[in-house]
Specification:
about 475 residues, alpha/beta, two-stranded antiparallel sheet, globular, Amidase domain-containing protein, Amidase_dom, AS_sf
């Protein structure tokens, strides 16, 4: 193999395939080698697909005979999917928990089917904060794989819950990956691991076959090293699914011709970007991070964006506190109902209800499991459906979104709101809004941080233009430093 795979983009890999400088088998072998070399420390991957090399050989053969499928953008490209996304193959789907080990899913998750149709090779399952952090464990920890670690600074927070998806892409253990987000689970690890994460509008990607937390906020999106790679994956996974009613309305947002057309280097020109400093800047302790963002704002201006500074979101203090907004209470009620429904639908499973999961965990004699407990699951089990109190909470969340971000963006005629890191995620979460994280720098300890561009439902085309324009103007991301496993 004479092609340098490390840090290669999807477009570069496809060109290497076309010029016979690389085969899918060689690519898969490279990533399996890197997983073998690095994963014992980073813990970004729970398991690899035993059929990955067979699938790579199949892709190479399709390319050789010029099969129509070989022309697709993700053809022959390996991808890791978070372990709460169902795959009907020889791998498990467990949300990181031993409680679901050996369970059998009825079918591939809709997004996995879409990836396979786009020619992608499912390389394996990425680790996560167990039960997508519904269990309230440390970021990046799950029973099956242990503690995920940040490849830039091993002692730093890898963030969660899609920690493994971000770790693995950042460390070049895979080309691209899929994560899920309920509140921050794509944007946060993307920021912490210096990668790009797209949190789509809720319903733009089907949740069918994904271990749920809440149907009101759950969404599936790409985590990749570049905006372009993330957009290739997004294009592959969006679409209407009759098994997820939310996709019916959201599919009307999908632009004719897909999202790739919005990868414009001049994407910042003429965009109105709002900056909400309180509380997103007031909480930053390092002066150099503040200086970095002031420099980024200047770059945005130089590239033709109009910056509207010092804006305020009405009710922001309530939105940022899940106990005040009620987000936590609503999430608990949904988790019990939605998870029970998912578990009931499994072909084979050691557990069929949230109560079963809690009981399983009581008898699981792992030191880390006993240490961290399962308070999040216990809180959800204590709920009794969507009662009057929960309905009042849901109404409050709707009002906070309408009077908060929606009103601000409409009054100020904004195309996006820009914030440091991923602390903006609760604002996007409760309204089902999209956001994109792009690498924005490294602090005094070399820990990465990102910049978040958020907008209203269906504004992915606008956000992609802005995020790509920023990325191309700055090109900040660098690979993690080498370390000895």
């Amino acid at each position: 193999m004479d092609f340098p795979v490390r840090e290669a983009t999807v477009a570069e890999l496809q060109l290497a395939f076309k010029k016979n400088r690389l085969t899918s088998r060689q690519l898969v072998e490279f990533y399996l080698g890197e997983i073998s070399r690095l994963n014992s420390v980073l813990r970004g991957v729970i398991e690899v697909n035993p059929d990955a090399l067979h699938l790579a050989d199949k892709a190479d053969q399709e390319r050789k005979v010029k099969a129509p499928r070989s022309l697709l953008g993700l053809h022959g490209i390996p991808i890791l999917v978070k372990d709460n996304i169902a795959t009907k193959d020889k791998m498990n789907t467990t949300a990181g928990s031993f409680a679901l080990l050996g369970s059998i899913v009825p079918r591939n998750a809709f997004v996995v089917t879409k990836l396979i149709e786009a020619g992608a090779i499912i390389l394996g399952k990425a680790s996560l904060s167990e039960w997508a952090n519904a269990r309230h464990v440390p970021n990046g920890w799950c029973a099956r794989s242990g503690q995920g670690r940040n490849p830039y600074v091993l002692s730093a927070d890898p963030s969660g819950s899609s920690s493994g998806s971000a770790i693995s892409v950042a460390a070049n253990m895979v080309a691209v990956s899929l994560g899920t987000e309920t509140d921050g689970s794509i944007l946060c690890p993307s920021s912490s691991n210096s990668v790009v994460g797209i949190k789509p509008t809720v319903g733009l990607t089907s949740r069918n076959g994904v271990v749920p937390i809440t149907h009101r906020q759950d969404t599936i999106g790409p985590i990749c090293r570049t905006v372009a790679d993330a957009v290739y994956v997004l294009d592959a996974i969006v679409g209407f699914d009759h098994n997820d009613e939310a996709t019916r309305e959201a599919s009307r947002y999908i632009p004719l011709g897909g999202y790739i057309q919005f990868l414009k280097p001049s994407g910042l020109k003429g965009k109105r970007l709002g900056i909400v400093r309180d509380p997103f800047f007031t909480d930053i302790k390092e002066p150099e991070i503040i200086r970095a963002f002031e420099h980024h704002f200047q770059t945005l201006r130089q590239r033709g964006a109009v910056i509207v500074d010092n804006l305020k979101i009405l009710g922001i203090d309530a939105i940022m506190n899940p106990f005040v907004s009620g987000e936590g209470k609503a999430m608990d009620a949904d988790l019990k109902l939605d998870l029970n429904k998912y578990l009931e639908g499994l072909v084979v499973s050691p557990v069929r209800t949230l109560a079963d999961v809690i009981e399983f965990n009581k008898f699981e004699k792992l030191e880390m499991t006993e240490k961290y407990g399962q308070q999040g699951l216990l809180d959800a089990q204590e709920t009794d459906g969507i009662n009057a109190e929960v309905k009042e909470v849901l109404l409050n969340l709707e009002n906070l979104s309408r009077d908060g971000l929606e009103k601000l963006m409409k009054e100020q005629k904004l195309d996006a709101v820009v914030t440091p890191g991923a602390d903006f995620s609760p604002v996007l979460a409760i309204g089902g809004y999209p956001g994109i994280n792009v690498p924005a720098g490294y602090d005094s300890n070399d820990v990465p941080f990102g910049i978040c561009f958020g907008g209203l439902k269906g504004t992915e085309p606008m956000l992609i233009e802005i995020a790509y324009g920023f990325e191309q103007a700055t090109k900040i991301r660098k690979p993690p430093p080498p370390f000895k496993p």
